[in-house]
Amino acid sequence: MSNRGKVAALRRAGQERKADDLELRAMFGGDSQFMNAYQTKRIRTRAREIPAWTLDDKEVQKVLLRAFPKWRTNRRQSQQAARWASIINLYFRMEKSNRQVGLELEPKMKPKNVELIVASIRRVARGHRADNKGPRGVRRPGRPKAQTIENKPLTAITVMHEGIQTACR
What we know:
The chain is mainly alpha-helical. Helices cover 49% and strands 5% of the residues.
């Protein structure tokens, strides 16, 4: 098998470093000083868990609508929703790093900002608020009702006891 065939076979097998070594040895020879001194560098990547909802456009739309319900009328929410959609696409679907996402969106956006936005996206997808103040929709909006069981007069409380309904007075 020729050198090119070996390199191609190694690349198909996922052994990029060995294939690179073979190509360099063909160029420089095994006794060259370069072959003893060089090091190949790789970009560090982390195995990232990609939620299933990020791959489905309808689910992404639900998350964005949950986070930004007034995006049609409120300009700020519209801009934020567009930013979140871009981050979902770049970070989750294309699996780019925080730094790459930040540079692609805005030249001055720091990786930490991207990380914080991704955390907010994950929180909203779980059903919580983006600002981490608890779950969404736990209680009704507006002023709470004044009457609870403890505040009602005794004449208004109906008691169920062994299947018989009686009113306490």
